[in-house]
TrEMBL record:
Name recorded for this polypeptide: Class II aldolase/adducin family protein
Domain of life of the native organism: Bacteria
UniProt xrefs under InterPro entries: Aldolase_II/adducin_N (IPR001303), Aldolase_II/adducin_N_sf (IPR036409)
Class II aldolase/adducin N-terminal domain location: 8-216
Lineage: Bacteria, Bacillati, Bacillota, Bacillota incertae sedis, Caldicellulosiruptorales
């Protein structure tokens, strides 16, 4: 049974992970509960497409993580629940057994309280709505017409508090709805599909995205990414959509600070623009982008940048009102220890 469930995890990760309009770089995560105690979940820093039966995931005792969230008292002022919840997750890793090798996604908490199969993607189509003020009402209309109910989660920083909010919202469902597959949209973040049926989880994820595309009138293929090596650990963006967007919007560094849409933009793009040794160079005159890093990291940045520009472009074309993250939320992500760990791991893996 465990072997079958691990194979299901790999298949789900490969299917979602190979579509850059669903996940970019090391973003998104997928989990499968192996039994009443153990859960396999993508390891932090890995791409979904890198997951195999031998590597790229962590097995945790999710029953103990869930028990923590069932019994924690979040009313203590000034207490660092984020750190505590990460410590609880790390403490309950049962595989791999070597210390400090891998850690589960920081979102392991909400995976623990949801169904057997959980897909969390950063779908560009879902995020067109998740990053616009009109999105909630429109998405409810789109999915209700197809017999789906959605749970809309206002923006909350990933981690402890997001898990508590999702747990709270799930607890308010009646018993029949608790047994059904669930669709959750996290504002300025992404999409979650939770189901106890393997095939259904994948089918609902696909259907939700197709319904959004159809209603928004999005046709044609999602743009492909292309990088050209121009030096040792130096790559130039050859993605036409990115070049055209920068040229038409006269994009400079300040653009990204003005329009913070979701955490992965801040982690992969903004942080690499403003680092002491910037990994991204934008030539305002030639409209070219150069990445001073490894191919794998350059690819992750390019995919994230494409998704970011694509979402902005679609919101503008549709006449929607852009909803950005608050300054408080952007500051939190910039200082987020879990993301520092993820970036460090990505760098080490690229060596």
């Amino acid at each position: 049974m465990k072997s079958k469930s691990l194979l299901e995890l790999v298949r789900m990760c490969q299917r979602i992970g190979k579509r850059i309009y669903y996940v970019q770089g090391g973003g998104g995560n997928i989990s499968v509960k192996l039994d009443s105690t153990l859960m396999a979940i993508k390891a932090s820093g890995f791409r979904l497409s890198q997951i195999t039966k031998q590597e790229g995931y962590v097995i945790v005792d999710y029953s103990k993580i869930k028990n923590y969230f069932d019994n924690v008292d979040p009313s203590t002022a000034g207490y660092d629940f984020e750190k505590e919840s990460v410590d609880v997750a790390i403490k309950n890793i049962v595989w791999p057994t070597e210390k400090n090798v891998l850690r589960p996604s920081v979102e392991v908490g909400f995976h623990s309280v949801l169904d057997k199969y959980v897909i969390h993607s950063h779908s560009v189509y879902a995020n067109i709505l998740a990053c616009s003020y009109e999105g909630k009402e429109m998405l409810q209309k789109i999915l209700n017409e197809e017999g789906f109910n959605i749970i809309w989660i206002p923006y909350i920083n990933p981690g402890f508090w997001l898990t508590l909010e999702i747990k709270k919202r799930i607890s308010t469902l009646d018993e029949k709805d608790k047994e059904k597959s669930k669709i959750l949209i996290m504002e300025n973040h992404g999409l979650i599909i939770s189901s106890n049926v393997y095939k259904e989880a994948l089918e609902i994820h696909e259907k939700v995205n197709n319904l959004i595309k159809k209603r928004l009138g999005i046709r044609g293929k999602y743009p492909a990414v292309k990088l050209e090596k121009v030096g040792e650990e130096k790559y130039k963006s050859r993605t036409k959509f990115i070049y055209d967007f920068i040229a038409s919007k006269n994009v400079t560094h300040a653009f990204f600070e003005k329009y913070p849409l979701y955490p992965d933009q801040l982690v992969y793009v903004n942080s690499n623009l403003y680092a002491d040794e910037p990994k991204i160079e934008i030539n305002a005159k030639s409209k070219e982008i150069i990445y001073n890093t490894t191919y794998s990291e350059a690819l992750a940045i390019e995919e994230t940048l494409l998704a970011y520009f694509y979402i902005l472009d679609q919101i503008n074309k549709l006449g929607f009102t852009l909803k950005t993250m608050t300054q408080e939320s952007t500051n939190y992500i910039k200082s987020w220890e879990s993301e520092e760990y993820r970036k460090k791991l990505i760098k080490e893996m690229a060596k």
